[in-house]
Specification:
With 349 residues, the protein is of the alpha+beta class. It contains eight helices and 19 strands. The chain has two domains: 233 residues, ApbE-like domains (T-fold, Roll), CATH 3.10.520.10; 87 residues, T-fold. The strands form five sheets. It has an eight-stranded antiparallel β-sheet with strand order 2-3-7-8-11-16-17-18, covered by helices on one side.
């Protein structure tokens, strides 16, 4: 758990807490001769923020531009909102036939299938047909049609997605299948962006994408990037958890912002692929892991599995730890994986 001991925090309810500075803002140079720069762009339906330290503005701008270009290419590859994305085109063509994929798409699907097997299907990127129905439910403020939902459920199942590593190809065994990478793509993109920054000589950096944060080396004079963690019951900064992270990632999954209330019931945007139903229990899961791809997928899986089974999944993942909060009636239940307390905590400022 040496990697876990060098830690950041994440906003447990909303995730991705960074200073709301304008893109490109710089700070005074540190004793090391490095200055702090911030940049922001919209991709994958959320705001990607990059905070980095570099020797001058030209280096910072060049590195951040390359990182955002990498994110944009991944969005064009993996989006399930764009019918012309590589992912959507592959889904249309792959029913009972092999379709070759780009290295990025094959890699993220392979990682997704690993998590699907480990979680017993609680994480399943073939959930796309059901997700589409629930997206419409949130827009229309009405539950999905029961018959349409039943049909969609028959099109979901990670075992029906086949991957061939030698050919770098995929095949879908049932018609109507649709892949949704929403539970892993942002973490993967943040990992990829950090790699681009490092290739440009920028290793002191942090990338935030919605509920996912990936951190590189810590800022000058510090042992980690510091962020406040807001729990379901947090009322101000004093009641938040303050943690630090370096060379690791953290993700939050929850329904603080994306949900719908229908007939007095609260339905999360998070779907259980095994049942086709939106989660109705208020739950927020924060996961620290060695990279954003892992933390993103683990947070999604643990949200569906619940506290007990989610903790077991995290505890069996090297370098991972989790903090889970759940409401049961008016009671707040807090659950932590066995390594969570190894993450350094600091007093509120």
């Amino acid at each position: 758990m040496a990697e876990i001991r060098r830690v950041i925090a994440i906003n447990l309810a909303f995730a991705a807490l960074l200073a709301s500075a304008a893109a490109g803002q710089t700070s005074s140079p540190s004793p090391t001769g490095l200055s702090r720069f911030e940049f922001a762009q919209a991709h994958m339906g959320t705001q990607f923020r990059i905070v980095l330290y570099a020797r001058d503005a030209e280096i910072a701008a060049k590195a951040s531009t390359a990182a955002f270009e990498r994110i944009a290419r991944l969005d064009a590859t993996m989006s399930d909102y764009r019918e012309t994305s590589e992912l959507m085109m592959a889904c249309k063509q792959a029913t009972r036939r092999w379709v070759r994929l780009s290295p990025d798409l094959f890699r993220i699907l392979a990682r997704s299938q690993q998590m699907a097997r480990r979680s017993g299907g609680a994480f399943d990127v073939t959930v796309g047909p059901v997700v589409r129905l629930w997206r419409r439910a949130r827009r229309m403020n009405a539950l999905p049609d029961a018959e349409k939902l039943a049909v969609a459920r028959q099109q979901v199942g990670y075992r029906w997605l086949r991957l061939d590593a030698r050919r770098q190809a995929m095949r879908l065994e049932r018609s109507g299948m649709r892949i949704d990478l929403g539970g892993i793509a942002k973490g993967y993109a943040a990992d990829a962006a950090l790699a681009v920054l490092k290739a440009h000589g920028v290793s002191i950096a942090l990338i935030a994408a919605g509920g996912d944060i990936v951190a590189g080396q810590p800022p000058p004079g510090s042992n980690g990037w510091t962020v406040a963690v807001r729990g379901l019951s947090s009322t101000d900064e004093a009641t938040m958890i303050h943690l630090r992270l370096a060379n690791a990632a953290v993700s939050t999954s929850g329904d603080a912002e994306q949900f719908v209330e229908i007939d007095g019931a609260r339905y999360s945007h998070i779907i259980d692929p095994r049942t086709g139903q939106a989660l109705t229990i208020r739950r927020s899961v924060t996961v620290v892991a060695l990279n954003g791809t892992a933390s993103d997928a683990l947070a999604t899986a643990a949200s569906v599995l619940g506290a007990a089974r989610g903790r077991r999944l995290i505890d069996h993942t090297p370098g991972a730890a989790a903090h889970i909060e759940q409401m049961r009636g008016d009671r707040l239940l807090v659950s932590e994986s066995k390594h969570w307390r190894e993450i350094p905590q600091t007093p509120a400022r």
